[in-house]
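Q: I'm writing up a methods section and want to include an example of the input and output format. Could you take the sequence below and give the corresponding predicted structure tokens, formatted cleanly so I can copy it straight into the document?
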Amino acid sequence: EVQLVESGGGLVQPGGSLRLSCTASVLALRFSLYTMSWVRQAPGKELEWVSTITRTNTTDYTASVKGRFTISRDNTKNTLYLQMNNLLTTDTAMYLCAVGRAPFLPRGQGIQVTVSS
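A: Here is the clean output for your methods example:
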């Protein structure tokens, strides 16, 4: 069974920064072979793709976060990261890491990020 566990969320003021982490188990022996993504879901809204990183470290971002967010991975730790800078109130959402691209399954339980003054 795949298990993805996110951490690093919380409450931050607009303009602030957070770094999210996602640690994968079971995939451990093959984590480096997987494309991984971050998605988010705000209350009452649909799941939104945020960013993807391939096994060759090619990255892609949705337009609203480009230049502010950075996705990365540490294959020695089976961990995916999302560095989020210059956060906006519109970034408030539950953030989830996922294996692959759409439909982003399996995915973790998520971690809340709230941007508010």
